[in-house]
């Protein structure tokens, strides 16, 4: 008798910042332990990093649904400590990010793919993220509500079309995870919101919605003057030379490897166990977290090429070594050893 094992479902952790009623979501592929974090809050940085460490997550991306006005993001600090790449909508025009996305783009981690849905209206740079029967809707669609439309280029008619033409066209069983809830609710569904949402449900017309939103008369968020400027800089004072670099692929590394001079070095930043299982011939192993011990030796090289499995650790090592004064670095920031192996390049063990 054969037993077929079902594909593991995505691991989800829903976290809350009670001061701002903000939800942060950690999504993890249980097969590969690769994950993404959605809408992190600065005050919860240590909590979120501790959870990532405890679960053994290789954090690939920080996904932001929009430029928040009620809290400062932890995205920049998380990138500093994990190498995770920061993702915003291109329309948000946020500085110093790693990837700007548009409607229909996809973001892969492990065996899962996040689909980007442009859902402007609360702000002009709002996006929702759909993956594995769940949609993380930011402030566009809340549980029995929606985001306001009276600041940050908000527009009620635009938000109406974003929700009704994009989110409400998802399957009714799709779980809705919003960026906030002020009544302690944790999750809804598209089917529930289409029927019961008092602002957008029950086939409310666009004209009715626009009139309703124009008469809310809400106070501005308390932290808007701090949060918006900070979030346009990923939550930190940012030096792009340390955290951003030109794209360098494993194919580029292979080209460099074929004629590597003595004053250049390839560094594998994975663990010793990963390195022993297969690495680029001639590469030396400096595991992520140990790079500061080798600064003086690395300064002797004209050029150093860094790689790992997915680019996360290599990118973090690049940032750390840059802070310590090295400027002779190149980094494979979007792939790693599996790509080298798939290409059929030589492997040493």
From TrEMBL:
Origin species: Candidatus Tenderia electrophaga
SUPFAM superfamilies: Metallo-hydrolase/oxidoreductase (SSF56281), Rhodanese/Cell cycle control phosphatase (SSF52821)
Alphabetically ordered keywords of this record: Acetylation, Dioxygenase, Iron, Metal-binding, Oxidoreductase, Transit peptide
SMART domains: Lactamase_B (SM00849), RHOD (SM00450)
Similarity remark: Belongs to the metallo-beta-lactamase superfamily. Glyoxalase II family.
Alphabetized GO MF terms: hydrolase activity; metal ion binding; sulfur dioxygenase activity; thiosulfate-cyanide sulfurtransferase activity
Record-given protein name: MBL fold metallo-hydrolase
Cofactor: Fe(2+)
